[in-house]
Amino acid sequence: MARNSLGREIPETFAGKKLVPYSDPWSVQPHAERSTRQIRRIAHNGSKLVGGLREAIIASGLKSGMTISTHHSLRNGDRLLNELVREIDALGIRDIKIASSSVHVVHSELVPYIRKGVITGLECGVNGLIGELISKGELDCPIIVRSHGGRARSLITGEVPVDVAFLAAPCCDEYGNFNGFFGPSACGSLGYALVDAQHAHKVVAVTDNLVPFPAVPVSIPQSVVDFVATMPSLGDPKKIVSSTTRITTDPIGLQIAKHAATVIEASGYVKDGFSFQTGTGGISLAVAEHVRNMMRRDKVKGSFGCGGITGYFVDMLEEGLFEALFDVQCFDLKAVQSIGRNQRHMEMTAGTYANPFNCGAVVNRLDCAILSATEIDVNFNVNVNTESMGYLLHNTGGHCDVAAGAKVSIVVCPSIRGRLPMIRDEVTTITTPGETVGVIVTERGIAVNDNLPELKEELIRRKAPVKDIRQLRDEIQAVTGVPRPVEFEDKVVGLIEYRDGSIIDVVRKVRE
C-alpha cells in the first residue's frame, strides 16, 4: 500500500492495473499518445444495417474478455444497456467490462449478469443498487469511478480501450449518421457518445427511429459508424429528469441559495462576459434565479452557461442573458427541445467540456459554478460518491472537473441531512480535493477557503455570515453529535480516480 498526498491508502495495483497515487490537481502529465481507430474501408455504398442487437453484437466481433460502452443520455429511461447485456449473455459471451459513461438505477437489472460472470468489471460510475452490493461484498466486480473529463481522457489516451461502443441513436439513417435531437427517444446532446464514437475500436449505432439518408443535423457522422442496428425502443425520455427542476420552497434551501448568491455577487464576476454552471436540484435553481435577477438588474450579458443543461438555463439564453449554452447532456425535455432548434444552444463532447489533457476544456473558462456534496471535511475535501453508510451509490459526474476549472467553485449543502452532520473532520471518500474548492455554503454560514482571501474580505465587508469551517463543524455537531465512523474491511472494491488518472481514494468493503 502507498499513501497519496491526502493521506489516503492506495493499493499499488487494482484489478491488474498499476496505480498512480493522487498528488495534486495539476502535476500529472499525459503518459500516452492519442490513440487512433483502426483504418478500414467498407464496400462502396454498402449497407450498414445488420438487424437487431444480437446481429449487431455478432457483426461487431465482440468476444469474451472485451470491453463495451454505452452512453447515459436517457439516464433512468435507458433501455439499451440492459437489453444489450441480455443478448450478450444469450450468445454465451462472458467476462465483459462495461465502460459506459454512467450506470444508473435502471441498470440494477444487470446484477444477475454480474453474479454469473457475464460482467466482471465496471470502468464507470455507478448509481444505486450495483454500487451498494459491491460495497457490501455481495458482488465481485471491481469498479473504477471517473469524472466526465477523466473518462474522456481515458478513452482518448487509450487507457480504457473500448472494443465496441453501442450508442443509442434517437434519429439515425441507414449509413450511420445520427443525432439525439429528434425521434420518440430524443435525449438532446450526445456529449458522452461523441467521445466513444471517435475512439472505440468498433461503433454500432442503435436506433428506434430509422430515417431516410441523410439524418440531419449530424452529431455523429457515418465516417465513424461501423454498423446500424434497430430495436423497438431506446428508452423513455420522460425519465431523463433525475432531480427536481423547480426552485426549492424549503426555508433552509432558500437560505443556502441566498448565501450562495451573496458569494457570487461579492466575487465581482457578474459583469459582461460572465460564465456560470449550476446543476439540477431546488437549491441550485434558486441560486440561478438570484443570478438571473442580478444580471437583469445590472443589464449584464453573460458569455455562456454550461454543463448539463436544464430548461431554466434555456430560459436565460432565450431572454438574452447568455450568448450561448455549451451542453454535454440535457437534464430535461425543455433542454432537449431547445438544442434541436437553437444554434446558440450547442452540443459539446465530454472531452471539450472537461478533459484536463487537451488544449483547453470549457470548465477552465468558468467564472462561478454551483456544486453539491454528500459530505465535506474541514480541509474542504468533498465527497459525492459514497453515502453515510459507506456504500458507493453515486457517480462523480463533472464535480472535480468543474471545481478545478472554475475561478470560484461554490459547494452548497444543508448543514444536517438525515440527522447527520454534513461537515466532518474527514469525509468517508474524497471525490474532489479541497484545494480546488473555493467556498462552502450552508444555512448556518459561509466558509471560504484560504486561497480566496480577497473574496473572504469582501464577504466580511458585506456582513455576510462568514465562519471558519471548523466553527461550522462544531456548531453542527453540537446539534447532531459526532457520528460513529463507518467500519470498513481491508478489501478494496473500487477506485475513485481523479480527473488526471491518479487515484484520489478507494472504496473498501463495508464491515457489516
TrEMBL record:
Gene3D superfamilies to which the protein is assigned, alphabetical: Glutaconate Coenzyme A-transferase
GO terms, biological process: acetyl-CoA metabolic process
Name of the protein in question: Citrate lyase alpha chain
A Pfam match: CitF
Record field: catalytic activity: citrate + acetyl-CoA = (3S)-citryl-CoA + acetate; citrate = oxaloacetate + acetate
Coiled-coil intervals, chain numbering: none
Oxidoreductase recorded as keyword: no
UniProt cross-references to NCBIfam families, sorted A to Z: citF
GO molecular function: citrate (pro-3S)-lyase activity; citrate CoA-transferase activity
Subcellular compartments: Cytoplasm
EC number: 2.8.3.10, 4.1.3.6
Cellular component GO terms held in the UniProt record: ATP-independent citrate lyase complex; cytoplasm
Organism: Propionivibrio dicarboxylicus
UniProt lineage: Bacteria, Pseudomonadati, Pseudomonadota, Betaproteobacteria, Rhodocyclales
Keywords per UniProt: Cytoplasm, Lyase, Transferase
Keyword Transferase: yes
